[in-house]
Amino acid sequence: MGIIRNGANGGFSGKAGSVVGSSWKDVDYIKGLPRKSSKAPTQLQLEQQAKFALAIQTLQPITALLNDGFKGSKTTRASGYNLAMQHLLNNAITGIYPNYTVDYTKMKISKGSLIKPSDIVMLVDAGVLQLSWSVLVSKYGAFADDELTVLIYNPVKNIYLPAEGALRADGALDVPLPGDFTGDTVHVFMFFSSRDLTKQSESTYAGSILVV
């Protein structure tokens, strides 16, 4: 049974006959009930399903970070997670079905108008990831107090490790890594956010590095 909201002229939620009413971000939607198909999926459908499953597996654990990372670049009602998903599906999945993989060099965790991190140098010493970057400060999108966000991904453990604690002007940050990361190769992403978190830079793939 559907429930009418805001009187006869309002939207409704729930099932009513062959349609379902719902709302997302104050926009009312009506859609038909899905119909089961007796047809076997086509090769193209199988490929798209496999890519979509890989994209969800990759991005779902960092949904909150993605919603923040794309906050300043959103021009639609789509969430940051959905924008990251769209970019990943269109640009960063490689391979031949069913053996798809993610090309982390093309994956984005943020987008925006600030100038992104550049000239990044990475070292690992005694389980500590040492990062440095160019201290480029300008009134045109590169401010001394822009806050750095680092995302470290260990594909062997399937663990994401976010880190903060540095400003653009600092030029360096040390990130202690878990002891069980030793011997694993990790992927590192970085982006800047304005102090009030309303603007972000496009993320930079800093590279991969072996943890020793």
UniProtKB/TrEMBL annotation:
Q: Which domain of life is it from?
A: Bacteria
Q: Which Pfam families match?
A: DUF6266
InterPro entries, per this entry?
DUF6266
The name this protein carries in UniProt is: DUF6266 family protein
Organism listed in the record: Paradesertivirga mongoliensis
Tell me the classification of the organism that encodes this protein: Bacteria, Pseudomonadati, Bacteroidota, Sphingobacteriia, Sphingobacteriales
